[in-house]
Design brief:
The structure is a homodimer. Helix content of chain A is 28%, strand content 25%. Chain A is globular, with a radius of gyration of 21 Å. The mean pLDDT of chain A is 95. In chain A, helix 3 packs parallel to helix 4 and helix 5 packs parallel to helix 8. Chain A contains ten helices and 15 strands. By secondary structure, chain A is of the alpha/beta class. The first copy, chain A, has two domains: 150 residues, NAD(P)-binding Rossmann-like Domain (Rossmann fold), CATH 3.40.50.720; 155 residues, 2-Layer Sandwich (Dihydrodipicolinate Reductase, domain 2), CATH 3.30.360. In chain A, the strands form four sheets. In chain A, strands 6, 7, 10, 11, 12, 13 and 14 form a seven-stranded mixed β-sheet that branches. Chains A and B meet through helix 5, strand 14 and helix 9 of A and helix 5, strand 14 and helix 9 of B.
Chain lengths: 325, 325
């Protein structure tokens, strides 16, 4: 693989090499070292690439024009925008337009990431493959936000008072996890279920302990994070429960981090991954590891559930491309 | 889905309806109730079907002509024959021939099952999707053979003396798990790894307790099952270890049944499913649940790792077929 272009809208990064911006010392591509540009159209007009990786925002409103610009230059696209995990969940019109544009240009567009994209959807779907029937699904991802930066902490209400938390929820500055609707839709599409409603509940996690992290200190009585739960309901019964309490240092109150999946069915499945799969590296790894599957795919807009089983790319990527069969 | 034919070589079943043979009371298909036939060619000549499900044996030598007969009648094929989990592992020539025959007839052939097919390969592969690098993989499936019949128990040496066990190993009547070479090949193909060697070790599990099951009683000092381990080795180092000790009532010596996966990498992953996923229902469920993926696939011989993520089929199967997109 060769990196042939890099775009960041931050003008402070423009003109610097990727190695400088990332503070790494990666070997140069044969075309020389790539510099970061802050004008997307300039880069898109200049380079030819098989794949554009887009990691600029969570919402389709933000990434839609970026994806379209790459697709129209006949680039396949992988994005970690959460709403692109299953864009049909909330943006059917944009999804249709992206599908048509991708099809017309002979390329594939797909969203991925740890969540939505893996723990609370793809991994559950894969497990249901061994089930003859299913009465209900419950999955819980308990993580520790301490490694994250101030933006993430603020959107989860970490360090706020309960009053500030509730005001933030009402005003939309605190919103918990982005992706439950997308994960629910991935699950129900895969299984062939119809839900009447997805009900989301967000509550402050009020700390009983003093929690000190690099970016914020949470005193007892203050908010350590957001308990965010989504209920997928059919005929008044909850078929799917997805829980993702996000806070700093849950261990300080004896809560173990982990990913937990319980499928009530035939057979019953009780899975746990402890500690939880680290989210940052998982998202970047998935984005890169899905490259061969996306390049091999027929053209169009697809989701993780329609792609072959994800896999780490550890050898020569050319071996994994269909033309090499 | 409609069942249009049923074949069993046992002449005692011939002429009886499926409901009689299976001792169930399933609703009739619109074409009337299907009777079991013991002459395959007769059924194949008479019926037209999208899919043939083949569950007749573990080895390619046995199922190869059966698969070919169905393919030549333009039927897609799903089989639970263990060696078909990745036929290229041990039978490259037959795999090539099946691929060409399937391609020529515009149908897809795939092997699946709990193992090979899921726990020790597909599930591990899916987990590696979140990994940026991997140093080693270790997976262990500890199950209880008590629900199985006398044939399975005999091939694992259950109830034998240690001397009988070792003789059975040497003579090939006791052989442990069938499928390690197939699982290893699925893993290494997915990751792009090359192994120098797969070393298999089989040892008797000598019981310290009295283990009473419907089909056999194991006295202390006798063999409760077969500890079977496969080591995938590269440059003298074990990269992949797959362990599948199969015995009756491991609980009697405090051994908990379960499926365990440890990926030493970035991130590190520690997964457990307790108790283990029940093997019999998982195999039948996978065979049925993969039907839409196999029908949607391009023609040829494929494996689980090349198919979309498996998923339980709980709704109308037509919604899951590509033409319905």
């Amino acid at each position: 693989m060769e990196i042939v272009g890099a775009i960041d809208r931050d003008p402070a990064k423009a003109g610097h090499t990727l190695n400088e911006v990332l503070a790494v010392n990666a070997p140069r591509s044969k075309g020389g070292e790539v510099s970061v540009a802050d004008r997307p159209q300039e880069v898109l007009a200049r380079v030819r690439a098989d794949m554009a990786m887009i990691a600029t925002g969570s919402f389709i409103a933000d990434v839609y024009p970026q994806i379209l610009a790459a697709v129209e230059r006949k680039m396949n696209v992988i994005t970690i925008a959460e709403e692109m995990g299953q864009p049909r969940a909330q943006h059917a019109r944009e999804a249709d337009e992206l599908h048509r544009a991708a099809f017309r240009n002979g390329v594939t567009v797909m969203g991925t990431g740890v969540n939505p994209g893996f723990i609370l959807d793809t991994l559950i779907i894969a497990l249901t493959g061994v089930c003859a029937d299913i009465q209900g699904i419950r999955a819980t991802r308990i993580n520790d936000l301490s490694p994250y930066g101030p933006t993430v902490l603020r959107t989860q209400g970490v360090g706020a008072t309960v009053e500030e938390f509730n005001r933030g929820l009402a005003e939309g500055t605190i919103f918990g996890h982005i992706g439950f609707l997308e994960s629910m839709r991935l699950l129900t599409d895969a299984l062939g279920w119809d839900l009447d409603e997805v009900k989301q509940v967000r509550k402050p996690i009020v700390s009983k302990t003093r929690r000190v992290t690099p970016h914020v200190t949470v005193e007892p009585g203050m908010v350590a994070g957001c308990e965010h739960v989504a209920h997928g309901i059919k005929d008044g019964r909850t078929l799917i429960t997805l829980e993702h309490p996000q806070q700093v240092l849950p261990q300080s109150e004896g809560v173990e981090t982990g990913d937990y999946i319980h499928i009530q069915g035939t057979p019953e499945i009780n899975l746990q991954i402890k500690p939880e799969i680290a989210g940052g590296v998982a998202t970047t790894a998935l984005a890169v590891n899905m490259i061969p599957h996306v390049l091999n795919s027929r053209p169009g807009l697809f989701t993780m559930r329609e792609m072959p089983v994800p896999a780490a790319v550890l050898g020569d990527i050319r071996r994994l491309l269909a033309r090499g069969r």
